[in-house]
Design a protein that fits this description.
Elements: E1 7-12, H1 15-31, E2 36-40, H2 41-47, E3 54-58, H3 66-74, E4 78-81, H4 92-99, H5 102-106, E5 110-113, H6 116-124, E6 133-135, H7 139-142, H8 153-163, E7 167-170, H9 187-194, H10 201-226, E8 232-235, H11 243-249, E9 255-257, H12 263-269, E10 272-275, H13 279-287, E11 291-294, H14 305-309, E12 312-314, H15 317-328, H16 337-344, H17 356-366, H18 379-400, H19 409-415, H20 421-435, E13 443-447, E14 450-453
């Protein structure tokens, strides 16, 4: 019997945030000889029992993943995990509660991390089972490096032509302003606190998020009036409800609510980024785009410190508007590059040297997955996994039709709008042209939301 390489299965949840980086990773894996399946996370799960046995790259390891991880292992797939949210984290004990599960971690063959600090947190987790940990970085950072920034250069130039010297505002209030309001995870703890409850972490975090959400809504009219000659672009978090922002924009012609494409060309084109505790501020720091942390309310352990540390920090509207004007006029730039690098070094591997995507593929090769697929599951285990996945798929597809459900199809389309094989192939060729690679790869569409790269 001939041994075949393991198929690398790459799920994508938020297209604008993850897809380009995961296409780069897919290209690096396919170039080394791995067959790759990439596409919508939800639809990959529906078909995972019909995919060739391989390695599933999990983007989170929460308790919510226990059922899917069990199905994957029963079907004979192995799981390599990394946490997309592992760069900007809550305090360790709360991160453990929200983002990790001893059950999911036991089902992983390898762990990939953003950097040394991420690895430290994972290895100190009380439920850490000794899974090999690898400092690889994340391909999202690869796309910000000088050798790949030109991938977005044309789009960035078009944005400059369209919007001029614009101000970019990224919001991250989905936990109090979710696409479906009843899924705003921290809204209820914040309300419970108002009723006299004890301030748990969720209540304190929810209170801070709610207050900042309200401050940002008040800030937009003031900033729009203070800089009427500049367009102000608000990019809500992919899981956010856009309505509060759209309502404000009705009054101000220079205020626009847009959440299309990757954030990278917007960061490259913007004169300044304004946010609070948002991963985009770290991406701006890597690119060298000036960023401002607007902190009209601070919350101690409830603050997301790392993004704010690589930004200019202001604590009131009175400080904010003059600083933004100063930056837009070119009188002030980002924090010094040496300072930004010093802050980021413990948190991000592969700011230079070998790309993160290649470090990840190295892990897969060294684990032996290029030589052969994971061993087949027993017939009983396989049939159990297949049955459980069919039952799960039917349940999820029913939920897709339920208004307001977290699996609702409209919400899926919000996070993963349609994309074609030709579009993915074009992106691979453009990435390859910048790196002198990927010239022999082809893309095949397996379904509306799933693709094979080989």
């Amino acid at each position: 019997m001939i041994d075949l390489p393991a198929t690398i299965i790459i799920p994508v949840e938020s297209q604008v945030r993850e897809l380009d980086a995961k296409i780069l990773l897919a290209g690096a894996a396919a170039e080394r000889g791995f067959p790759v399946v990439i596409g919508s996370r939800a639809f990959i799960h529906f078909r995972v029992d019909s995919l060739p046995r391989g390695v599933y790259l999990a983007k989170s390891m929460r308790t919510l993943s226990i059922r899917m991880f069990s199905i994957l292992r029963d079907l004979g797939h192995e799981i390599v995990g990394w946490d997309e949210e592992g760069l900007v984290r809550w305090p360790d004990d709360e991160y453990y509660r929200w983002r990790l599960s001893p059950v999911t971690l036991k089902k992983l063959s390898h762990l990939l991390t953003w950097g040394a600090d991420d690895a430290r947190v994972l290895q100190n987790y009380p439920g850490y089972p000794g899974t090999p940990v690898h400092l690889t970085g994340n391909p999202r950072i690869d796309l910000l490096r000088p050798e790949l920034r030109s991938f977005y250069r044309e789009k960035a130039e078009l944005l400059k032509q369209q919007y001029g010297d614009f101000i970019l505002i990224n919001t991250n209030f989905s936990k109090v302003n979710h696409f479906f309001s009843h899924l705003s995870e921290l809204k209820k703890p914040a309300l419970d606190l108002e009723a006299g409850g004890e301030e748990t972490f969720d209540a304190g975090k929810g209170r801070l998020k709610q207050v900042l959400f309200e401050h940002f809504q008040k800030m937009l009219p003031a900033l729009s009036q203070a800089l009427p000659e500049h367009n102000i672009i608000v990019r809500p978090h992919p899981a956010e409800n856009h309505r509060p922002w759209l309502k404000i924009a009705e009054t101000f012609p220079n205020l626009k609510i847009i959440n299309e494409d990757s954030v990278t060309p917007w960061l490259m084109a913007a004169k300044v980024l304004l946010a609070n505790g948002c991963t985009t501020m770290i991406e701006a720091a890597v690119l060298g785009t000036p960023s401002v942390a607007y902190q009209p309310e601070t919350g101690g352990r409830y603050d997301d410190d790392l993004p704010n540390e690589v930004s200019h920090r202001v604590y009131s509207l009175a400080e904010l508007c003059p600083l933004v004007r100063e930056i837009v006029q070119g009188e002030k730039g980002p924090l010094a590059e040496s300072e930004r690098r010093r802050i980021l070094a413990p948190h991000i591997t592969a700011l230079n040297g070998k790309l993160s995507c290649d470090r990840m593929v190295d892990v897969l090769v060294e684990a032996g997955y290029l030589q052969k697929s994971p061993p087949a599951a027993s017939i009983g285990s396989y049939l159990r996994g297949k049955l459980h996945n069919r039952v799960r798929t039917v349940s999820k597809k029913i939920n897709m039709r339920r208004p307001g459900h977290r699996n609702n199809f409209a919400y899926h389309q919000h996070r993963f709008p349609g994309v074609t094989a030709a579009e993915i192939e074009t992106r691979i060729k453009r990435l390859g042209a910048l790196l002198g690679r990927f010239d022999k790869l082809r893309v095949e569409q397996l379904s509306e939301y799933i693709f094979r790269i080989s």
